[in-house]
Design goal:
Layout: E1 8-9, H1 12-32, E2 38-44, H2 48-63, E3 67-73, H3 79-91, E4 97-100, H4 110-115, H5 128-136, H6 144-155, E5 164-168, H7 175-184, E6 188-192, H8 199-203, E7 208-211, E8 229-232, H9 245-248, E9 254-255, H10 262-284
Parallel strand pairs: 1-9, 2-3, 2-4, 5-6, 5-7, 7-8, 8-9
């Protein structure tokens, strides 16, 4: 009979605070030099969760000394109108980073909207250019949540080379890029999703399990390899992740809480990349 245990927590809140502390100092140095980093947020419609997320990002930006420019557009706008707004922001020299809050209303071509963001201002890492840079290991901005996940793993000294990483989820801004980033770090990566047959047979093989499927408590403890590192990148109504924390915490070796795990890291990377974008754009002037 094995003795029960609880996994150690990957504390994203604490790690993110250290990142933001440096971001704040870097932003202050830029501002002292005459350039205040500016993040433009674009919100289409008034989805309550999206409104909350945008407001939170604006507040975090302000605390870090990063200026905010918020654009609110009605839910019934056309793709062309949204593309035009993003193009205008891309061409504005006072805007250094652009965040389009997603998802957008179903009638809008989200990919066309993302592609209207200039690569040098794509601080959320949502364009095809950014994805290709991540996949090929070229310079560019990473998708904010995958970037935050990798930083968290590094902070806790999780060895990636030679480990089997299983990613459950295939979205173009989370599941797919985090797999690419893990592959670039010499992990062996398996992609799964909600329609994978016998999903648990794959997740039980994972040394590192990333849950990014968008279904509450979708992965339970019995589907987790003992001692695995479990990254819950899901965020569902009621502060529930994609992993059933109560059962998973007794099987995993390391696990992210929801909230307080991946979420703070996403915002920290977003702010860090905004300041980096401002620095690069200042250097090109």
């Amino acid at each position: 009979m094995t003795e029960s245990h609880n996994a150690a927590l990957l504390d994203g809140t604490a790690v993110a605070a250290r990142i933001v502390e440096k971001v704040t100092a870097d932003a202050a140095a830029l501002t002292a030099g005459g350039v205040t980093p500016c993040l433009a947020t674009v919100l289409v419609g008034a989805d309550p969760a999206s409104v909350t997320y945008v407001r939170m990002k604006q507040n975090r930006s302000a605390k870090a000394g990063i200026g905010s420019w918020h654009v609110e557009l009605p839910a019934n706008i056309t793709t062309a109108t949204l593309v035009a707004a993003l193009t205008e922001l891309s061409q504005d020299p006072d805007v250094h980073g652009i965040l389009l809050q997603h998802p957008v209303p179903a009638h809008i071509d989200e990919r066309a909207a993302f592609e209207a963001i200039a690569p040098e201002k794509d601080v959320d890492g949502v364009t095809m250019h950014s994805f290709a840079a991540m996949a090929f290991g070229e310079p560019g901005f990473v998708s904010a949540t995958p970037g935050g996940i990798l930083r968290l793993l590094d902070e806790y000294g999780v060895e990636l080379a030679g480990k089997h990483a299983v990613v459950v989820g295939r979205s173009p801004i989370l599941g797919k890029p985090v797999g690419m980033m893990l592959l670039a770090r010499d992990a062996t990566v398996t992609y799964c999703h909600s329609r994978t047959a016998d999903l648990a047979s794959y997740t039980r093989q994972a040394d590192i399990l990333v849950a990014a499927v968008g279904r509450p408590a979708f992965i339970t403890g019995e589907a987790i390899k003992p001692g695995a590192v479990v990254i819950d990148a899901g965020y569902n109504p009621g502060n529930i992740g994609d992993v059933d924390f109560a059962s998973a915490v007794t099987k995993a070796g390391l696990i992210t809480p929801v909230p307080g795990g991946v979420g703070p890291m996403t915002i920290a990377v977003l702010l860090e990349q905004t300041v980096a974008a401002a620095t690069r754009q200042q250097g090109r002037r």
